[in-house]
Structure formats: C-alpha cells, structure tokens
Amino acid sequence: MTAHEIDYRIFGEEMQFVEIELDPQEGVIAEAGSFMMMDDGIKMETIFGDGSKNDSGFLGKILGAGKRILTGESLFMTAFYNNLSGKRNVSFASPYPGKIVPIDLTHFGGKFICQKDAFLCAAKGVSVGIEFSKRLGRGLFGGEGFIMQKLEGDGMAFVHAGGTMAKKELKAGETLRVDTGCIVGFTKGIDYDIEFVGGIKNTIFGGEGLFFAKLQGPGTVYVQSLPFSRLAGRVLASAPRAGGKDKGEGSILGGLGDLLDGDNRF
C-alpha cells in the first residue's frame, strides 16, 4: 500500500465524530476546521498541496494546491502524525448533523468522486484532487459546476453526509434520479449527467428545481437527506429580519403585526 493503513472508530448518532488510531509514524490528512481532539504525542503540521505522497516535490505541491483552489478549498491541508512508539488517537467531527461514511478506496477501484464539501479526512497518501465534468449540461446546471472532488489511492477516506444517508447499489444500465444537492458521492463506474425535469407545471410550480441528477450504473451511490445548502436556506428563511421582532412566523398574526407597528416596508 502507498497510503498509511489506519484503524478507526465512529462515535455518536446525529453529530458523529471519527477517531483515527495511528501506529508509530502513521499520519492522516484533514480539511481545516474538522479537527476535534488528539492524544499527547501527535504532531500537527500544515501542508501545502493535496496531501498525497505524489506531491512531495515543489511542482507537485503547486499542482496539488491549484487543484484545491479550483474546488473552492484552502491552499493548505492539515496533517497529523504519530511520532511516538505507541498507538495514539486523533479525532475529527462532523460539521453539521448527519453521518460519517468510511470509504475504503481499495474496494472502489482506487477512486471515489464526491461533492466538494463532503470530504472530512483520509489516510496520509490519499490524493484529494478534482474531477472535471466533460458535459456542458452537468457543468452549467449540476449545482456543483464543472468540478467535484475525487479521492484517489489505496487507503481509507471519510466523507460526511447530512441528515440520513442512503447507499444505492446500481446494476449496469440501472438509473437513479436525485436532487443535485443530495448527492454525497459515487464510484468511478457511475455515469453522471443532468436531466431536465420537464413539463410546464413542474417547471413553474414544482418547487423542486429544474434539473435532476441522473446516475446510471454500474456502481455505488451515496445520497444525503439534508445537504448543507438546504439546511442553510431553512435557517436563513427562519431568521428574523434585522431590527425586527418575531410576531409568529407562519401565522396571520405575523402579517398583521407588521401592519400595526408600521413595519410594512415594500
């Protein structure tokens, strides 16, 4: 194996965290902000690039960092190493309610494609790169643009699914249609494209967006019930307006209260 062979345990139900057990000289890479806690003896290091062993040279680091810029991530990642003789643990937490999904890349042909904000952490040696879409429709209407993240190597990686996670095994030619924001990731054998919902009523009054993600097997697809964009939209919609008071959202009293106190700005 080129990636470090790590052990792990996942704790919790709604707000999970993953505990990585590191043998001496083993390491794990993670996105900034996912760190939770670590044992004494773990060395934390900020690295430039995509975290793989292939970016050891200066040019490799530049290319790895460039990939991360295209996915909207920071130039840097964080690596954690066990520099002592015994086993040590380091833990990483979910960013919001959902499930942490362990991905053994050796079971998926060494490659897994995921939404750019789904990646949590991985064994040192796993490459975190970009996956370009070659289809114009997917790039323009897929919700994530032309670019998704790809995890490559032969080690363990961990991604986060918001809400409840569903795992779908698709046979050759079998098709699954999914809301574009609800995709967590899929294996390299999946054919991914965008499909127009169709129909005047569906387009104008459907409220579900104009496009589906069309995923065709063979391969494995992971789907989330609560993408972060949906969660953030609900929070923003429920937040009181600046300087306003909560008079009963969703009721007729809310609208009447605005009229009575003169808060009827248009």
From TrEMBL:
It comes from the Bacteria. PANTHER family: ALTERED INHERITANCE OF MITOCHONDRIA PROTEIN 24, MITOCHONDRIAL, TRYPTOPHAN RNA-BINDING ATTENUATOR PROTEIN-LIKE PROTEIN. This is TIGR00266 family protein. It comes from Mangrovimonas spongiae. The lineage of its organism: Bacteria, Pseudomonadati, Bacteroidota, Flavobacteriia, Flavobacteriales.
